Amino acid sequence: MSRLLINEHPLMVIPSLAVKVGVNESIFLQQIHYWLTTSSHVFEENKWIYNSYIEWQKQFPFWSISTIRRTINSLEKQGYVVSANWNRSKMDKTKWYRIDYEKLEGLEYHRLSLFDLPSAQSEQSKESGWTKDEISLNKPIPEITTETTTEKIHILFSEVIDYLNQQTHSSYKSNSKKTKQLIQARWREGFVLDDFKKVIDLKTSEWLRDPHWSKYLRPETLFGPKFESYVNQKANKKSYKEEDFNLDD
């Protein structure tokens, strides 16, 4: 059997939680929760843990530090993770983290059983504490096509496209296959609804009144490979050249 399969402690993805907060965010939340259960650091009646970005990367070697930073910022922005500085020296900028469990409970998510563990692994799964209601990173993440999650991901499609149409006075369809693929690809990279709205707002303010660039206020351009650079763009007008984009209709 491959050495890459269940021979090390797995990280977990709860699909219904990932739909709500993002794939990367759901993995990171699970890891924070794991460490909080063993933490002895209590401040303001809450348990806290601390780590530097470099230390986090040792636990998530498949992520860059920028991805880890973006994931943490996303969770803080959504309100599921609270950060503070409880270091004795204020010169020490190591961040402390806790989970806002009350806000998390509001999601009312449940674990989905997406596959059956082989019988030979049943005792191993009991000893490790993992159940077949959870899915490990050692198994490919399933497509978001189950009956339980289809409705939720369609809500994301609708909200993004409705907002785009509202801001740009367009009439794009949320059920377009290409548009759905673009939105889902960005969602799987860890971006959330607020990121889509931010890109739409930024590009609308830049391009809507420009007869030439306004035609690129479309899903193919906004939600394509340059999406991350748009998310991180400062809110000021810039000049662009046609060669910066894939202009094929």
From TrEMBL:
Top-level division of the source organism's lineage: Bacteria
Phage conserved hypothetical protein C-terminal domain sequence ranges: 160-232
InterPro entries to which the protein is assigned, alphabetical: Phg_2220_C
A Pfam family of this chain: Phg_2220_C
Protein's UniProt name: Phage protein (TIGR02220 family)
Organism: Rossellomorea pakistanensis
